[in-house]
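Q: Could you fold this chain for me?
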Amino acid sequence: MEGREKYQLKIEDIHLSFGGLKALNGVTTGVRSGEIFSIIGPNGAGKTCLLNCINRFYHPEKGKTLFEGQDLSRLKAHKIASLGIARTFQNVELFGHMTVLDNIKLGAHIHMKSGSISGGIYYGKTRREEMALREHIEEEIIDLLEIEQIRKKTVHTLPYGLQKRVELARALAMRPKILLLDEPATGMNLEETEDIARFILDINEEWGVTIILIEHDMGVVMDISDRICVLDFGQKIAEGEPEEIRHNEHVIRAYLGEEDVTYSRLGA
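A: Sure. Below is the predicted structure, expressed as C-alpha cells.
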C-alpha cells in the first residue's frame, strides 16, 4: 500500500453491502491534495456508494476513510462537512421556494460562530459574519459561476442547468477543501456541459479545491481529470492517468463487453 502521507484523502479496504448485494468490495484508493480525481464505471458499479461512504451517508461494515490523517469512520455526516468535505448530488437537492442567494447562504451555516442571542437581535458579531458571508458569496462564488442575473430568483423557476450551478454554489459556500461532485453534467446540453467543466477547472485551479468527480461523460472525464479510478461490480479494476485508463483493456471490457475489447479509445 502506498504511503498515507501523500494523500489528502485515503480510502482503505471499504466493504458495503445491502442485504445480499455487495455494493463495494474491498475498495482502496487515495486522492492527492489539489487534484481532480474522477471515479468512473458502468451503472451499478458502486461510484455513488463510495461517495456516500466518504461523507458518512452510508456506514461501511469494513474499512476506513482518512482525511488529512483523521479517521472519519465514527463521525456524523454534519461533522464531515465541517471538516471541509462538501457534496453535490445526482439529483438537484435545493429548496425550490427559496431564492438562489438564500439557498447558497445555507451552505455556509456550519461556519457561523455567533450565538442565539446576538443572532436574534442581529447586531455585533452576527452582523459582521452576515456581511462577510454576503461579500464572499456575491463577489466570489456568484461571480465565478456567472449567476449574478439570477441571484434573486426563486429556484424552482430556473431551468435545470442553472439549478445545478446553484447547488454547486451552495457547496462552495461551505469553503470546502474537497468537493465531491456526483454527475454534475447529467441532463445538460453540450454548452451547459462545457460550462460546468470550465467551472470545475476554475474551482480546482483558482481556489485550490481538491475535486472528486463522478461523471458519465467520458469526454469531460478525460479532458479535466488528473487521475481516474475505475469501479466495476463494487471492485476497483484500474487506476491511473487518463491516457492509461483510455487504453486499459479491463476498463474497455467493463464498459463495452468482451466482444468489443479491441476498441481502445474510451472517451475519444
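A (continued): The radius of gyration is 19 Å.
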